[in-house]
């Protein structure tokens, strides 16, 4: 099954690269999915392991108003993202992530952080430093503190082209 996911991701990435125009990275991807939390308000810590192309755990139970510390590990062989948002937010962000591939920032299993500082011509960069998102190369770990101030249709996803359609997303269950 994991081989099928890898194959599906490769096909989806090829299709996405051939058929989409990129957007600009740097918008607020978590505007309706909650807000950055404070360490002093954390009620629990959840470990997220990212593989090629799935998460463990696949779903997470949360409560409205709860603040969670996520410890995110990329255990895969590809660059992956942990991004908290609505399905609509993820759809828009996938176009921005495509631009990161087109500019050589994401190269399969490598992440060129120097290129993330590049000015895209409008004063915006591709730093990928939003509080609801972590972009990690294989073997990297990050922490995120998130407050679930909303309880709508919120999920976590990898928006690297091809990964979301291959099934790399999970639901927050309220």
Could you walk me through the main structural features you see in this protein, from its secondary elements to its overall organization?
The strands form three sheets. The protein has a five-stranded mixed β-sheet, with no helix packed on it. The protein has a five-stranded mixed β-sheet with strand order 4-12-11-6-9, covered by helices on one side. The protein is globular. 22% of the residues lie in helices and 30% in strands. The chain has helices at 2-19, 87-102, 113-116; strands at 35-36, 44-51, 54-56, 59-61, 67-74, 80-85, 106-107, 110-111, 133-136, 141-147, 155-157, 169-173. The chain has one domain: Immunoglobulin-like (Sandwich). It starts with a helix and ends with a strand. It contains three helices and twelve strands; from the N terminus they run H-E-E-E-E-E-E-H-E-E-H-E-E-E-E. Strand 7 and strand 8 (110-111) form a beta hairpin. Residues 1-31 have low confidence and may be disordered. With 174 residues, it is α+β, with helices and mostly antiparallel strands.
